[in-house]
Specification:
Blueprint lengths: L5 E4 L5 E5 L6 H14 L14 H13 L4 E7 L2 E10 L9 E8 L8 H13 L6 E7 L3 H10 L2 E11 L5 E10 L6
Parallel strand pairs: 5-6
Antiparallel strand pairs: 1-2, 2-3, 3-4, 4-5, 6-8, 7-8
Helix pairs in contact: 1-2, 3-4
The structure holds coenzyme A.
């Protein structure tokens, strides 16, 4: 679904604009995903695994817009894409379609300004207007910045999955599984 566009004041005084993606944002979203994959080990894909085409990404954006189980929020500073938060249904099956996965990423140049918090806050608020009941996520060990963000927002720890990721250097990272129960809001 689409959210009402909104603005958020960042710690350095700049204004962050939050809105849902349009198909024209597809290329910028792919560039963003590749850049973040270069900048941190804390996302699930390496850059060379992000092979989606602009057309495929544009089709996904149309799906986010049409679905009551999916929500995508983009954060812009001065018209440049700085961050993305995506909530996606885990499955279309009736037993599990109340469950969703959340992913969030902010480009390193914009870290610690409050964009992560702004994206998460908007996504959780809007999720309450949709059919999303439970939001689940996985955070790699060592990603204290993300862990703090999620804890502050009300996500609870469920457990630690050992050896969840095998990095290019052969080392392993476990991941914390965290869950958030969405408060229903009219809308
Ligand atoms: C995690 C991420 C989304 C945070 O985005 P951000 O815009 O920097 O987040 P914010 O500025 O809103 O907030 C960061 C919070 O991290 C916390 N934080 C920062 N450094 C920290 C540290 N070393 N230890 C613990 N908490 C820390 C603070 O609580 C801070 O909030 P505050 O300054 O308001 O108290 C961003 O760092 C990112 O995209 N990282 C790479 C991808 C990623 O890890 N995604 C999450 C996968 S689960």
């Amino acid at each position: 679904m689409k959210i009402e566009p909104r603005t958020w004041s960042l710690k350095d005084g700049r204004i962050c604009c939050l809105r849902s993606p349009e198909p024209d944002d597809a290329e910028a979203m792919i560039r963003h995903a590749r850049r973040v994959a270069d900048e941190t080990e804390f996302v699930s894909a390496y850059r060379d695994e992000i092979n989606i085409t602009t057309e495929e990404q544009a089709a996904l954006i149309e799906q986010y817009t049409a679905s009551v189980y999916q929500l995508c929020v983009l954060a812009f500073i001065d018209d440049a894409l700085a961050g993305i938060c995506l909530i996606q249904g885990k499955s279309g099956r009736r037993k599990s379609r109340h469950r969703t996965d959340l992913g969030i990423s902010v480009q390193k140049a914009y870290w610690s300004l409050g964009i992560g918090r702004a994206l998460l806050s908007a996504a959780l608020e809007e999720a309450g207007k949709l059919e999303i009941e439970q939001i689940e996520l996985a955070v790699y060990e060592g990603n204290e910045r993300a862990r703090q963000l999620y804890k502050d927002a009300g996500f609870l720890d469920v457990g630690l999955l050992p050896r969840a990721a095998r990095l290019a250097d052969g080392s392993y990272l476990g991941e914390y599984i965290m869950v958030f129960n969405v408060q229903r809001r009219g809308g």
